[in-house]
Amino acid sequence: MSLILGALLACAAGLAGTLLCPDESAARRSRLPLLAVFLAGGLAWHAPARAGEALHGPARVLDGGTVMVGPHRVSLYGIAAPDADQTCSDAQDRPYPCGRDAARALADHIGTEAITCEPRGTDSEGAVAALCRVGDEDLGAWMVARGLAVPDRTAAPTYTAAADRAWGRRLGLWSGVFQDPAERRGRRADAAGLRNAG
Fold it and tell me: Which residues neighbour 53 within 8 Å (Cβ) at sequence distance 6 or greater?
């Protein structure tokens, strides 16, 4: 879509240059705006992903629910995974780094494979919220099925059955006690807002 828009803008600039600058020396000058429009069209091609434009490439895992695909920060749509610094308790009430464990599991699962992400909008932090896959496998569903993330209550309830199975088997987060990652983020945001207001 951005390439088409760039081409249309280039044509419009060329037409405007021809109509507004009919003499020879002005025609040469009119090439500069045309070049600028082609450049802008090329930059638009590399602009941030919009809804419907798939992202594809190698991923760098930031945490259990967030990856970088090229320059794009992408949150896995439909899930809430622990932040990288989040700690949970296991069945014996011993603390463990559930956030780092979730990130490591996701990174190990992706490995060196390229992922494909279909944007669904943006999250509360401005990242692209997207349904991401390795091959045909939905990474959000994979995380929830292993108890490494929970379904996002604000998104469509597509992962509820997987979460129920993980809970029933006491997998991952469900093996002990944890704070809901979305709730934890909400409390941190509220606390930051109070600090900034005071």
Answer: 1, 119
118: helix, coil or strand? Answer: strand
What is the full per-residue pLDDT of the chain (198 aa) written as tens digits? 343 334 444 444 454 454 444 554 544 444 544 444 443 443 333 444 454 589 999 999 999 999 999 999 999 999 999 999 999 999 999 999 999 999 999 999 999 999 999 999 888 778 899 999 999 999 999 999 999 999 998 777 789 999 999 999 999 999 999 999 888 776 766 655 666 666
Q: Which two tokens stand for residue 109?
A: 């699962």
The neighbour count for residue 6, using CB atoms within 10 Å, is: 19
Find out whether 149 and 47 touch, Cβ atoms under 8 Å. Answer: no
> What is 35-74 written as a DSSP string?
HHHHHHHHHHHTSPP-TT--EEEEEEEEETTEEEETTEEE
Terminal alpha carbon distance of the chain: 46
- Which residues are CB-neighbours of 46 under 8 A, at least 6 positions away? none
Taking each helix axis from N to C terminus, what angle separates 2-20 and 24-45, rounded to the nearest 10 degrees? 170
CA distance 173 to 196: 32
Q: Bridge-partner residues for 122, per DSSP?
A: 128
Alpha-carbon span 48 to 167, nearest angstrom:
37
- The length of the chain, given as a count of residues: 198
Amino acid at 129: A
